[in-house]
Structures are given as C-alpha cells and as structure tokens.
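Reading group handout, session on sequence-to-structure problems. Before we discuss, look at one worked example. The prompt was deliberately terse, the way you'd type it at a terminal:

> structure ABC transporter ATP-binding protein

The input record follows.
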Amino acid sequence: MSTEVRVSPSWMVRLLASWAADRRSAVGAVTLALAGAGIDLAAPLVIRSVVDGLSAGRSVAVGALVLLIVAALLRFAAQFGQRATASRIAVRVQHDLRVALLSSVCRYSGERQDALRRGEVVSRSITDLQIVQSLLALAPQAAAAVLHVTVQLVIMFFLSPVLALATLVTIPLAGALVVRSRRRIYAATWLSQQATADLTSFTGEAIAGLPVTKVFGREELIERRFLDLARELYGRRQRVARLNAAFSPGLTVLPQFALVLVIGLGGTMTLRGEISVGTFIVFATYLLTMTGLIRLLAGVVSAIALARSSAERIHALIDSAEHRPDAVGKGTGTNRGGAIGMLLSDVDLTLGPDARYVLRGLNIEVRRGECLGVAGKAGSGKSVLGLVLQGQYRPRAGRVALMGDSVETGDGTEPVALGDPDVVLVTEEPFLFSGTIRHNVLLGREFDADRYASALADAAVDTMLERLADGDRTCVGESGARLSGGERQRIALARALYESPGLLVLDDATSALDTLTEARVFDALRRRLGRGCTLVVTGRRRAVLSLADRIAVVEGGRVVEEGDARTLLRDSVRLKALLGEETPTPTLGADEVTGDEPQARAALPANTRPVAATALEADPAEALAHHVTALPPVVDEPVGADVDNGRRSGPLVLREVLLPVRSAAVTALMCIGVEVVAAVALPAVARAVLGRSKDGDATAVGLLFVLGLVITAVSWIAGWGTVRASTRVCDRVLFTVRLRCFRHIQRLPLDYVDRVRSGGVLTRMTADIDSLSAFLQTGLLSLIINLMLVFGAALAVVLMAPGFWPVLVAAGLVVLVGTAAFRRIVSRSYPRARELLAAVNADLYEKVHGVRTAQIFRCTDRITAEFAKKSAAYRDERQAGQRAVAWFFPLVAMTIDMALICVLLPAVVDGLPWAAGDDGGTIAALILYVSMLYYPIQQMATVYDSAQQARVGLRRINGLLSEPTEGALAGVPAGTPGAGGAIRFDHVGFTYRQDAPYSLLDVVLDVRPGQSLAVVGPTGAGKSTIVKLLARFYRPQRGAIHLDGVDIATIPLRDYRRRAAIVPQEAHLFSGSVGENIAFGRPDASRAEIMRAVRSFGASEMINSLPGGLDYDVGPRGSALSAGQRQVVALLRAIVSDPDLLLLDEATGALDLESERSIVSALREANGGRKTVVVAHRLATASQADVIAVVERGRLLETGGHEALLRSGGLYAGLWAASEASGHDGATSNPGQGDEA
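And the output record:
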C-alpha cells in the first residue's frame, strides 16, 4: 500500500477549473471585466477629443461629453456585475473546496487517520481557503488588467510610436523582477504557511489538553512551546517581507518611471508640435492607470505565491485520500441477513513507515454464530484486530475474508468492505456527535420503532432516559461531553445494535458500565447470539471473556493460545495472569529496561518516525527544495516588549498594542507620506512641463524631467521602507495578539471550553486572528496609501482650481449617503457571517474527529451533507455582504467619473468658476488628479472586505479576552499551602449547567494524608465530578471543599495544582516522545529518574516494545500508542511529578488486570503520605482502598472499608454480590468527560 502524498503540479489549472465550473457565471464575470476595461481604455480617447477641440478653439464637443456620461453609467453596471459575479464564484469555490476537504478525510484509511493532524485540517480549511478565495475574487480583475495593459500599449503605439517605445522600456525590467523574485517568494511563503499550520496544530492540541496542563500547573511550559512556534512564524514572515520589499516597490514604481519618461519626452514632442496636448493627456492618463494596474498585479503576484502554497496544501489533503472502491459511504449497504464469520490468515500489519509490526502472522477464525473472546496486554494488538475486522486497516500481507451462508468474499489483497453493514465495531472510547441521543443512535438511518426500542433496551439506555427530562431528545454536547463515560458507551452500543449486524466487534466496549448494567447488557448480547449474530469481544476482565465460546490470547500481534473459553479460563496460566488471578514467572524484559545506562534506547533517526510521521508534510514539489535551501536565513525575532505585551491580560487596546512598535509605525507612516507626495507631485510636474513646452523652454523641460526621475527614485526608496516598516509593525502586533489570546485560553476555566466547544475556541485562535492578519499584512497598507492618495489628489485639485470645490462637495455628499446605506447593510451581514464561520469550523473540527465512527456506520455522505449545509449558509451570508460591496464601490467610481466630466464641462458651458481657458497644462493636471482618484477607490473596494472581516474578528478576539480567567474567579491569599493536608467536602453541591439537576448534592467526605479513597457507584452517579472538583476544574455552587480548614477556592491555583496530579481514563498525550510526556509534570526530571519510575511500575516491557523506547514519538495526541499504553504513560507522568494529591479517574480501565495489579501495588508502596482518590470501575481495585465512598445520583450513600460495607448490606454490597455472581472482576462507570458535563 503506497503512502505517498500526491500533489498535483497543475494547481492553477485545478483552481481555474473549479472557478469555471459554473460556466455562465464565469463567462459573465470575465465578459463584464473586459467590458469595464474597454470603457477604461476608451474614456481617455474621448477626453482627448474634447481637450484637443478646446485647444484648437473648435465648437463645443457636446457629443463627446454625452459619450463620457454614457460610459460612466456603463462602467458602473459592468463593475457591479463583475464584482458581484466574481465574489459569488470565489465564495462558491471556497465552499466547494471546504466540503471536498471533509469528503476526502472521510475516505481516509485507518493509517491516514492515525497520522492526521486534525488542527492542521482546520488550519487549511480556514487560512488556506481564505487565501485561495481572495485570489479567485481578483481573477477577473487581474485578467482584465493584463488585457488593459496590452491594449493600452497598442493604442499608445497608434498614437505615438516613440512615446510607446519609451514606455515599453519598463516591460523587460518588470519581467526580470518577477522572474527573479517569484520562486524565492513562493518558497519563503510556503515555509511561512507551514509554520502557521504547525502553530495551529499545536494550538488545537493544547486546547484538547487543557485539563492536563491545568492539573499539572504547566501553563508556562505550554506557553514556552507556543512562544517558540510563534517566534519561528514571526521570523519566517519577516523573511517573506524582506524578499517582498525588494520586489513589490520596484514593480510599483516602474509605471511611475514610464510616466516620467513620457512627461520628459512628451513635453519635448509637444513643444515641437509632434503631438497634441490631448495625446499627452492620454499617455499620462494611461500611465497613471497603469500605476494602479501594476499595483493590483503586484498584489496578485504576491497573492499567487500565497495561494499556490495554500492550494497545494489543500490539494495534498484532498489527494491523499485512498481510493477504496469497497467503501460503503452512502448508507446503501444492506445486511446479508444472519450471522457471518471471518477468517484471517497470516495477517501482517504495520502502522506507518519503518514502525514495528502490530500484527505479525496472525491466524484467527471467527466462526458464524459464536462469540470469540480476544485477550491480551496493552499494545498486544487486540484493539487493532477489531479495526482490521471492520476494514479500517488494510493488512500489509495475509488474507481477510468474510464467510456467509455459502460464499466467501475477500482475497489476499482486498480488505473487508469499509462500512460493510454486516460488520460493526464499538470501541472503548466511543465518539458521539453533537446532537441528541436519538440522533446519535440513528445516525441518519431510517427510524423503526421496534428496532429502536429493542436497541435502547438491550444497551440499557432506556433506564438512563428515565432520569433525563428530555429523554432521547437530550443533547449530548460536543463529543458527548454532557454525558458520563458509561452513558456514552451505552449509546454507542445502542447505535451498533440498531444496525443488527452479522458480526459485532466490541473492543472492551462495556468497561465504563457498572456491574449491574453490564450484566444486563451481556444478557441481551447472549440473546442476540441465538438470533443470528456473531460476536467478537476484546477484554481484560473475566466478566467480558465469560461471554465467549472460544478465547484467543494475543501477544506481540499474534495468537499464542486459543481454545474453549471454559478450559482456558480454568487452566491457562497466561490468561489467568492477564486477569490478575495468577502471578506469572518474571522475566528480564518485564522487570527492567534492556541495558544499564539511562539511554538504553537510542533516539529514532529522523526517517524512522512512526505512525504520526510527516505523512502530510511532504513538499509540494521537488523543485521547491532547491529554492528553500537558497533562501536567506531567518534573522528577525520579536523583541522583549512584544513578549511582555503578549503576557498582559484584558482586551486589546490600540494604544497599548502599538506603543512597543511606535518607532516602526512612525517610520512606516513617514514612508507612506513620501510615497503619496511623490505620486501627487508627478501630475504637477506634467502641468509644469506642458506650460514650459508652450513657452518653448526646452531647458526647463529637461530640468523637470530630471526632477521627475528624482521623485521616482525617492518613491522607490520610500516604498521599500514602507514594506519593511509596515510588515514589522503588523507581524509584531500579530505576535502579541496570538500570545495574549493563547495565554488567556490557557487560563480560562474549563466550563468556557465546554460551552464554546473546542472547535469554537480554535476558531478564535485561527480564523479570527487570520482575518486580522490578512488585513494587517496587506489590506491596511493598501488602505492607508490609497486613502492618502485620494485626499492628496483632492487637495491638489482644490489648490489648482479653487472654484472646483462645489463639485468635490457634491461628490462627497453622494459618497457619504452611499456609505451610510452601505454600512447599515454590512454591519448586519459581516457579524452574522463570522458567527456562521465559527459554527462551520467547529463542525468541521468535530466531524474530522468523528470520521472513523461515520465510516463504521456508513454515514460519511450524510455528515458531509450536514457540513455542506452549514457551509452553504456561511457562503450565502458572505455573498449577501459581497453584493453590498459590489454596488457601493462602483457607485463611488461613477461619482468620480462625473467629477471628471465636470472638469471638461467648461468646454460646453461658459462661466464656470473652475474654467481654465486654453491652459492645457492646468486642464491636463486636473484631469490627471481626478483620474488619480479612480484606482485608489477600486483598490479600497478590494481591501474593504478584508477590513470588515478584521473588524469583526477583532471584536470576537476581545470578547475572548474579556472572559474571566480562573485566577480572576478566586482569591489568592499569600502563604497558603499547596495540596498537602486533609481534605473535607463540606456539604458540597454542584451542577454543570444551571438548567440541569445537581450532579452532586450535599456531599460530606474526608480524605486524610496518606489515605486512599475509592469512589464507586452506578453510571452517571457523580464520581468523576468529585475528582474534577478536587482538581479545581470547576467550583461547587453549594458548600465548600476545605484543605486543612481553608477553602481551596482561595488557594492560589498554581500552588495547589503543582502538588496535585490527575490521570483520566481517556489519557491525553502531547506530540513528542514518550519520555517528554512522562516528564511533563516535572520537566526537570532526569532520564534516570524516569527510568526508575518505569521500572518500579513494571512498565519496562511496554517501553522496550516501542522502537526507540523513551524516545519513541507518540504522535498527535498519542495516536501511535494503544489506549492501554497511553494510560501507562499518563500514570507515569503523574507519578514522576510526585504529587501530594493523586487523582485517578478510571486510570487503569484500559489495562489488563496483571498490569493494573502491578501498578496498584507500586502506588501503595510509593504512597509516602500522599492522598489518593480513585474512581474505580473494578470493585477488586476499589476494595484495596483505605476508604470506599459509594455515590448514586449525586448523593453520598455510604463510606467505609471494604469489609464494613459488605456487612452493611447497602449498594456496595449489592454491586459486589452481582460481580461475584457473574464471575465479574468489578466494574463501575466511567464518566470520562463528566457525569453531566
């Protein structure tokens, strides 16, 4: 199976094909753009006829002025139609690519999903798609600009070949500049965008790992990692700015240089009578127009560099989906009917290039109608086996075949059909989509009342619904966060049972259920076995394996023992050891890490990174490597003031943010001012040249020509300074904003993330900051320059022709009225669009995480359609805003056209106060100044959309920064101790939501130093809530938790949490090595100390099994490890931190009993006065605690030791009796993310 990422070299062709998919709209946009360009070209020629007629004393050119009025109206219509159509196409392509992105990810194989950095997917859907959309919106204008320049040159040759040749001198210079800079800028831009994706991926990982970061008090460590990535991004962006500073100003100044040539040579030719004043004005107008066009094209060239890397990154994700002709994605697959079997022969499976084998020569048969149990240690391959049976993983070698009544399907190369309705997998950590319980059970399948009721009853969901006010209409929250772990497992079981599959694979899928509930579910499964269902159960507990007819024991990815279930459970030493019923003979591998030195395993070479290796980080083209190596080194870093400013708290204040960059900002404004003065000065030089030409003063014409060259040189130097200073200001401000937002998120209470959803929080750090970034990097500079050009040109007109002010005032009033109407429309549209975009990004974030579930239940097309609907709502809202932009700026341009007609009005109306008589120089200057207003207005129209998005994004960023942090919610008395001392729950009551019942009510509980407390009870009882309150993730609404008599809410969080540690069942690991994750709670821990902890907790065998040992890369969120291996690493992370308070929330649920027994024993030996609170789903584990607390429906029912509770005959005694009666080894619930969270 090839894992090569294919990236199409024809990125532009693919984008243009998408752009032209709606042929009518595409042809319309291009036609209207060309029509507008044609009008732009014709208007100066009409003006020439008027001016030349005036100079020659001919009669009034009424017809020419009427033509100009008609041209202005037609140009308004063409620009409105072109902008509306082009923006509609661009937003539609953005929508199509966004949906294609999710559709492609929905076709990813299990291996690709393991390697997928989900934060990067969101980054590409936000940042890269926005860049592509911006380029596509400019496409018709760019095409028209190229045609405009080409036809312009033809007309200029027709009017004066000599002046045209002088103009053509600049063309080769521009070409050489583009060719020299294009590849270097592209390479630097690609690296900059990769740095952005890395920062986004880390941000998503950090948000997901907030509970871990908080409980270990490692916000500063995570912040330092973020800071390093942000510094790298800053340096790479500054390198792009340096390269762009050598390109963009030079390209922009070339038309000014050509204008100076025309002014000098044209003035001489006018003096000799070789050309008329009107022809001179046409050339000057064309070159002023060309200045705007070249500025537009320079922006397009830069946008192409950005869009190319963005498009290739998007296409890389889309193209990396495997073609699975066997995949069933539309829900069209139907059950074959009855039980089916499966045969696996000599199956080999590796996960990632050069990684270890996870299955090696596996031979196993699942017989029709039987229940096969699979047992093994963490990392043995039993969970991977379930994914192979379901078709998620395609074996490297061997045969996987389904067996029905009389036929066998499958051969040595083709896997079981991905999404086959006959094979359903339920994992230990099920994924639920945001929505209701009913929505998650049905997943779009046709509703059948009897099947639905049967599935709910068999999965014990019916009893759960009885205590929910909204029943199966209850919303589960993001990823099921509002339910306990046991409730999530029950819903996942009901979802699978509703399918009535021929083969049901349960990968320890009942580990979070209490004893009584699990027994009820097992009874239902036994009944289904008798009705034509085959069952495969993987597990680590006798209760689970007691379901089986046969049991296969897996070690190292192969079956090492297989036989009748009763026989193996009675006689197998290996199986009894896994179940914790017999101690195996110790071996060297199980006791110590190979080798005596701390560095027992060498670090992996860069080319042997495992599953999470850079499968999606391939260069878009081999040729890029040469240009990357040829780039200058990164030399820029943000200064200390930027870091200090980023560490401030509270909303962004303009003065506060700009204060550290004031010198660079002043420099940028001064350079911009020089650029504008230079641009405004050139028409004045043209006026002087015409005046001196009329007087026959050739010397003065020559001196004015030299002055024009000096002005052009100064303009180029100022342009270079503008780019360097402005980009430094923008990137430093963005660095500050990113750091401040990230630090603030790290300090927000967890209920904010629960309320906003992880995808919503990530949107604040990506889409909202990216909108600000896009505007600051390009739009702000363009806006300032063009605004100053408009005001400079208007001031020059008033100074040159004071009588023209009534025309300017009238034009200003028209613009003000239009602006008021325009703002009223966009003030509603843009915020709505931003909220819709946040919802789209959050939905994408969730659906990418739920792809495996969607594939199992063949609803990938449905979740893609749901996402497309939300994306379409955003698209439609964006188009509404774009329609307002489409009419407003053409209206402003038409107003300028009318002002230009007013300049020529004295040709037909006598006595106007701004009449210049036969002063050709003044008329030419007025025409040039008024014409100069046109293209700045057009460019402001281009950046207005970016400015509005930035304004809304800034408001949302400030909304985030206004959220109160954990520190603001608690007092901080000095000198208060950390987590040592006795803890007391004093009549504690707590609810996750004000409209929900209390998860805990009137709880009174004590935990003394050195004491272990086990919390047990049915699913959803409130057990995990106790742990979360102790970790100070939430604050109780009633009562208080005291530490040595002090309310813990008043203890500084850092002091408290640095002496506490938590291990949840769903362990979160950060990208990096195993050793780095173990040392997360105590970064100064030496390698020898880590090794000592590994040995003392019996984890040497597991570490040795990983290539590279402690240096093994765990992948994004630990995806390269099994669930049990992740739990071992999380436990070691907690132990190495040496906490006073250790919180274990189902922390050994994914381990076999042998491993759990070893870890529990080591915990007891290493107690040393530590308080330990254990939420235990195995009563055998809970029974070893000093004190056991039994909770049900949020109330504490009983406390005491194991024997005392058995004698009392309460709930605990009932659970224990049920456990013994079923051969159970103790199972209570796993609230996971919260019992009602």
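Points for discussion. First: The mean pLDDT is 79. Second: Residues 424 and 1218 are 29 Å apart (CA to CA).
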